[in-house]
Amino acid sequence: MKNKTVAAFLFLALKLVAQEPAFSPCCPTTEVDFPCYSGGFHLDGSCIYLRPTATDGDLEYGSFITLTTSPANLNALLLEVEPPHQSGYALSLGYCFPNSNQSVDARYFSLNARGKDDKKIATQNQFIQNFLGSSYSTSKAQSEHKIDQGTLSYRFDSVIDQALNINLSLGVAYVNLRRDFDVEFGVQVLGPTPSELTGEERSRYWGVGPLIGAEFMFPLFCHFGIAGGLETEVLFGKNHSRVSSESFRNNTTNSFFSKNSSHPIVTNLNCDLGLVFSYPFTCDWGIEFKLGYQIHYYFKAINRIDPFNGYVNNPNTFPIDRSSNLGLGGPYVLVSLNQALFPCSCHPISCCPLSDRWASTGPTFKFTSYWLEPRPTNKDLVFAILTEPSGQQKNLQADPELTWAGKYQLGYRFCPSADFSLSAFFFESSDKTKIATKLGETISSVNASGPSDVVFSEATSRVKYKIDQYDGTLGKSMQLCNWLNVHSGVGLLYLKQDRILTNEYLGGTPPLITQTKSPQLKSRYNGVGPLFIFEPAFGPIWNLELVGSLKLAFLIGESKATLDQDNLGLLGFSSNDLRTPKTPHIAPVFEGSGGISWNYHCFSCMHIGLEGGYQYLAYYRTVRLLLPTLLTGLEQINSNLILQGPYARGQISLSF
């Protein structure tokens, strides 16, 4: 059924793109020009509507517990704040030097986003628990993200084939980021006297560092075009974080306080993609309107201090530092008044014929076979701890093997320098690992709820990955010199990713507590977002080329996780059902490959290509881990999924 769906999808796409586009004509050469502008100022104003998303449980604060006695069952829902979209703004002022393609630009961006979450129990068998283990009937939580960012950049304009405008920028960036998180628990329901608990967390980061970026504008028809950009900033600065709380019981107030500072290096990736409309008022002045989607992603910018056993001061509490990423995504509208919107002349610097591999128009079909090995992070496949007779412990981890995956790609080349393609990638992997103890050894369970002092004699782990990925791209081919060909493009990528980890533990002692334990952890992520492609090729020499590919996507989607566990002992059967709500999540995806290709023309209308190399594919923070804390509390972290291994690709192109 899936093969029929993919075939229909690719056939329809070919039929839609087989018509000649309305943008500027193509020619069998790549012409790179430096435009010469008359010079002047430009002023930009943007209205943005962004939504903050967190990773590694940064905005979680407790668990909503429901108990039943027949059968013995525990249901737990992780509580976390989900901030809505909030409005912000960006201002930019620049100056283009007269009779040149160079300009300076100063930009300021500001956003203040707030979110809140309230919960209240409805029946006597429900309660709200924080990570101390105390149980309450009400809870309140609120978050605030405040971002102020400024950049100063020097820009260079170029025009390719008299159509594609590319703007490169170098400069410096400054970021001031603040995250506040406040919680309140009221009316303790499982304790000798009523109690209240309040807590607050603060994270402050500021940093300054270099930036490098690129923007493009590709005309479609009349005054409309596709516009986008990608910018990277590496920030060097300081992070201040603190946590404090107070608990009131028996007219006594207990407090907890901890603070920390560090000097992390934070990478910030910004991208946008949308439609642009340009209209000149006069020969010197014009206006631009942009409508699109914008994403900001700050790696390791948020620092959170977690007490190991709760917020309240007690002899067993000590702080743990952990960092998380912050993503901002949403639509934007930009209005620009430009005194140097159109060039007065152009200076060509290169005019090279395209290589034979791109000297045709018509449909193209590619099929790629991958042999990929999943490489998890954050020890998310550790399923047991083996204790030897000497007392030494070692982690037992599932080790997935190389698995075949396939990618189908159908495209149409309008001319030697422009193309459109659609592709579908499928990956499915499963692995089983089993361990039994020898004399004097014991096995302890990991990532499972229930008593932690139970040991087992046998453990089994099964892990399954499934990925369905689709993308559509609009590409441009260039030959910058006789030995360097470049293909770049932009588009959209859709991802559906599932991971199921099923563990089983047998022979528990003491037998009155647990004899078997079977937890199953499920994680799912769905997302779609802009895709940027850069594919260089060096050669050809004897029809051989060294080829590479770099792809970067930012997906805006939702993630969720569940942990279902069955327990069996002499006391009977019990089960635990733990889950997270479906929450918004921004996930970067990176793909890189390198190899050698061989190209050959035959029958005067057919081009055949063979390619082999090594593939690296990384999905950042798309796997969601739901972990029990104490007996009934919940905690979550995110991990990356890395796929790597060799590949072989075949290509057939027809020319009309």
Give a structural overview.
The chain has 656 residues and is mainly β. The chain folds into two domains: 31-138 and 147-195 and 205-349, OPCA outer membrane adhesin/invasin (Lipocalin, Beta Barrel); 356-656, OPCA outer membrane adhesin/invasin (Lipocalin, Beta Barrel), CATH 2.40.128.100. It has one helix and 30 strands. It has one helix at residues 2-17; strands at residues 29-36, 40-54, 60-69, 72-80, 86-96, 102-120, 126-129, 135-160, 164-188, 196-221, 224-249, 252-262, 265-280, 286-307, 319-338, 345-353, 362-376, 382-387, 393-397, 403-415, 418-436, 442-445, 458-481, 484-506, 516-541, 544-569, 572-579, 583-602, 606-629, 633-654. It has a 27-stranded mixed β-sheet that branches. The chain has a three-stranded antiparallel β-sheet with strand order 19-18-22, with no helix packed on it. A hairpin with a 3-residue loop joins strand 29 and strand 30. Mean pLDDT is 80; it is low at 1-28, 308-316 and 344-356.
What is this structure's SSE topology?
Layout: H1 2-17, E1 29-36, E2 40-54, E3 60-69, E4 72-80, E5 86-96, E6 102-120, E7 126-129, E8 135-160, E9 164-188, E10 196-221, E11 224-249, E12 252-262, E13 265-280, E14 286-307, E15 319-338, E16 345-353, E17 362-376, E18 382-387, E19 393-397, E20 403-415, E21 418-436, E22 442-445, E23 458-481, E24 484-506, E25 516-541, E26 544-569, E27 572-579, E28 583-602, E29 606-629, E30 633-654
Parallel strand pairs: 4-27
Antiparallel strand pairs: 1-8, 1-16, 2-5, 2-15, 3-4, 3-7, 5-6, 6-8, 7-8, 8-9, 9-10, 10-11, 11-12, 11-13, 13-14, 14-15, 17-20, 17-30, 18-19, 18-22, 20-21, 21-23, 23-24, 24-25, 25-26, 26-27, 26-28, 28-29, 29-30
